[in-house]
Sequence to fold (138 residues):
Amino acid sequence: MPVATSDPLATVEHTEQEWGEAARRLIAMRAFNRRHDIVRAATYTYGELYAELTIMGLAHRKVAIPERDWMGRVLYALAVINKANREPCMGAMVVRQDTREVSKGYAEAVHIVYGVVDLKRLEDHAAVERLKVVAMFR
Fold:
């Protein structure tokens, strides 16, 4: 059943493009400011990035979408921007709080940016991408 545009669950104040661009700016600033400690200080956890986007007034408006799913959409939009700009996959800079590693969704971002379909070692790929991201903003 189609959702009416007046449905409050379908109302999103900001587009995914805006979310992706905002995430790109935040990640770029952190990578530049904390480039000396790439693994820990230059990364965001999903929760930290969500909080920063919320502070900027860019939180999702779909109440029915959990935070983690919304962040997946943000990182998807970021990957599309990275591909268009011929940049490294900046999604590598967003990690899980419990492991400090990328989530399984990172594989989708890599697919968008590079066309790679099957990565066996996501975290190894992400570590290389983090170095590329930090180098890009030196």
Observations:
- The two ends are 50 Å apart (CA to CA).
- The beta strands are 44-45, 94-95.
- Residues 107 and 120 are 9 Å apart (CA to CA).
